[in-house]
Amino acid sequence: MTIQLYTNLSDNAVVDKNITQVGSNITGTLREGCSIIDPIIKLETTVSGHLNDCNYAYITEFGRYYYINNIKCIGNLFELHMHVDVLKTYASGIRSNSAVIARQEHLYNLYLQDGVFKTYSQPHIQIAQFPNGFGDFNFIFSVAGG
Amino acid sequence: MHTVKHIPYKITYGAAAYQIKYDLFFDDDLYTRLCNTYSDGESVIYNGSSLIDANPAATINGMLYSDVINDFYNLYVIRNQYSPVEASADYALYKNILAFMGMHYQMLTLALDNQPIVYNTNGTCENMSTLTDVTLGGFIYENSAVRNVSAYNNQGVRTYMQTSGSDRCYIQFGLDVFPSDVLGMFFSAEDHDTLTLNITVFFKRDGINILYADEIKINVSKNYSYDQWEAKRDLVHWNSRGLFISTNDLDNPYGINGNSGLGGNDGTLKPGDLDSIDPAAIPGLPSVSAADLGFITMYNPTAAQLRSLSSFMWSNLFDLNTYKKLFSDPMESVIGLAIVPVAPNTAGNKNVMFGSIDSGISMPYLSSNYVQLDCGSVSVERYIGSFMDNDPYTKISIYLPFIGIRQISADDVIGGSIHVVYNIDVLTGACACFIEHSTRGVLYSYNGSCITNVPLTAVNFSGAIQNAVSAVGSMMGIAAGMATGAAPITAMSAAGLVTSAANTAINSKPSVQRSGNLGGSAGILSILTPYVIIERPDVSVPSNVQHYVGQTSNLTMLLGDCSGFTMCEYVHIDGVSATRDEITEIESLLKAGVIL
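ok -> structure tokens follow
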């Protein structure tokens, strides 16, 4: 098994993570049962010098990128608790799918109702008079016949 | 199956705030091909009747440019006999408005020349504001007997598309709203048998006065004859002035053909007709008048003339014996004396007659008891440029003399102007007030009374007092109610709104009635010029908020075409070899929002 450890500087919501590999590839043997979604991998201390910079990993055999959620020290071993990063792992597959987009950063229509907007308590009030009005007062005197 | 790409653009330019919005949909293959470059970096010129090949030796995808031309002929034009704009004040402004599309770093860019250009052939120049990302010029249809096509590059130099580098023109799209003219599109599709075009075009001036709105969705083949093109035109839905196509999404259930399928019946109403407008005009005055009949005569005296008349009636000059042959009382022949706030239409002067008795006092008499007062217009402009310009976020009320303050719908009038006209009967004091929208016609009408009767006898006086007391009582009721907190305050309807801080705040605002009825004498004592009160929300928009939460989109898109924050409403991930849990997580994340 080969594991590449990375420093990930991107938010989890970012598909294309900004990752930098830390150290060289780590090779070893999987000696216990392991989930490919939430793997827990024990590493020997020989690689511990890099672990404090690691929050992301790629396991070649699993073909998946992982967030390192926690690192536990167990004797002279470091136990990495990971969870698969489905966005990075399946980025190309995700991009080949269509979806109904509810919100988008660049393609949007502001005339759709949006609950995100906030307003100040004091509204803008515009008052505009019409150019003309009443005011030419006249008497009207009406008589029968005439 | 081709994926259709949707590329919305919106440009605002010029002091008159013209807006041209193009929503472009391109077949995926065509889009890809458009990204290719011709070998010589040149393009084709359409001169109104034929294409000019600037360099026949140029190639694209291994094909000679000269060969491509034939395909242009098969594909380039959807002929349109549509005549969208009648002669109007705005007409000249919209003639020959042009917009062009080009490609720049693999992105379609709607390009307008960034230099002052003459696009209005009556000689006026329109200085378009500078667009920084203009990648190419375009064609200008000149409104002349011989339709010439000119092109400008992005330096504003007139050229025949002798472009270079990234200054490429792959699609030329010319619009001319001159009646019976063409809506022309021509594009390179030399090796593409069929394709789908969906183009929505808006010409808007102030957000609501849309002079030109077209939507085209058409499947075509390069082998179509002209007749086949004409037949295909039936698929094109044309709208007319005043219509607004608000949905540009291909998945719009009110699509071009209007077939909703099972469960929704098959409507026969075309989509554009949903908002069809046959505006009602402000009515003219009645053609017959009480003044025409001879049974009564209405005078428009001055105060001095009335004083003279009063002196005459109570003097010895008044021959009571002669008068009594017709009436038992001198006042019986007097129908009334009133004060009106408008100048009546007079026809000349004549002596006031009481039966057969000539008072000898001459005063202007009325040719008609009807008068029209035009109060003019006020623009109600959009401010925010979003849904908040409409109800219930923007609230509009109007004060109308002799009627009071009335609420009008922002949906009805925003982006246009409102015009107030009163039709008045000076004999009875009845007035009908019409609020006319600049394109939608009369949307509101109210009635009131604008006369103050002057009592001439004790009976008249007691009646007038009674009327005045009733009116004041009515007003006092309103005032007292407001003072005691029982004012007619109604919470705004929240139906149909999404829950949000903004909505909650807006909906918690009371709607306060600002006036009661202001008819008769109370009206004359009130403000006599109408005015409009527009209450717009003051929106707080954090900087770059779309990066964090996006903006409302509601489009069906290929996720690969999205960049930045993207939140999906509905998504089904196919073609990914992930576990079910992973696919569920992907869909969950996409619905929560990801950054592509």
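Chain A touches chain B through 66 residues (CB under 8 Å).
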